[in-house]
């Protein structure tokens, strides 16, 4: 189960940031062994992550680790750890997810797995990837995915990008997985735009988002936390439906309330019990 709203990427080459990030407002941090680590620093980064995981004493954030498909065995040797809640598999493939699942099984940990959809192949075969044991949900690496599809991001292609995002939402729902994790924005200074896009992701069916800067985290948490008014309405809908014992009923505005409406209300109430 994915119960984090915000995932803050932390470069694995900056161990001085680990404690601070884990003690900050993010529900989860992702120690990034992939893109954030130059080739010549891979081994040092792995050693620093391993040492921190062994000695961690503070912070309430979940710890996740992003691993690279090009160095999967070496990265998993560090990432599969009792202190790690989950592993993010970059550029996920069936082989990469299965190897990750096997390593987790061999070590006997309860580690979750999130695959990043970053290739056309992964997008087309999401149902196969979702069937790999331990896969909790997927995220989207949009820069890589759009490059693989030869799509240029622009105002003219925004509808295409939204359609790709919806494909992932549908794939996760069809497979019975948790709602997907929305991609971040590297424009971390424009928090108004980040708030707008985060709200749009929530409307589209995402229930978490990644961040590359601590300033983005409160924006994500706010967008993914139901308001008091929303909760009041949801509780009222559930109460009316329960009183009707599954029979027909209407809400306070005279609109028909059925199981589908109540299902949405219950999902919203469940989100109120996520980290705050």
From TrEMBL:
<keyword id="KW-0460">Magnesium</keyword>
<keyword id="KW-0456">Lyase</keyword>
<dbReference type="GO" id="GO:0016829">
    <property type="term" value="F:lyase activity"/>
</dbReference>
<dbReference type="InterPro" id="IPR015813">
    <property type="entry name" value="Pyrv/PenolPyrv_kinase-like_dom"/>
</dbReference>
<dbReference type="InterPro" id="IPR011206">
    <property type="entry name" value="Citrate_lyase_beta/mcl1/mcl2"/>
</dbReference>
<feature type="domain" description="HpcH/HpaI aldolase/citrate lyase">
    <location>
        <begin position="5"/>
        <end position="214"/>
    </location>
</feature>
<protein>
    <submittedName>
        <fullName>CoA ester lyase</fullName>
    </submittedName>
</protein>
<dbReference type="InterPro" id="IPR005000">
    <property type="entry name" value="Aldolase/citrate-lyase_domain"/>
</dbReference>
<keyword id="KW-0479">Metal-binding</keyword>
<dbReference type="Pfam" id="PF03328">
    <property type="entry name" value="HpcH_HpaI"/>
</dbReference>
<dbReference type="InterPro" id="IPR040442">
    <property type="entry name" value="Pyrv_kinase-like_dom_sf"/>
</dbReference>
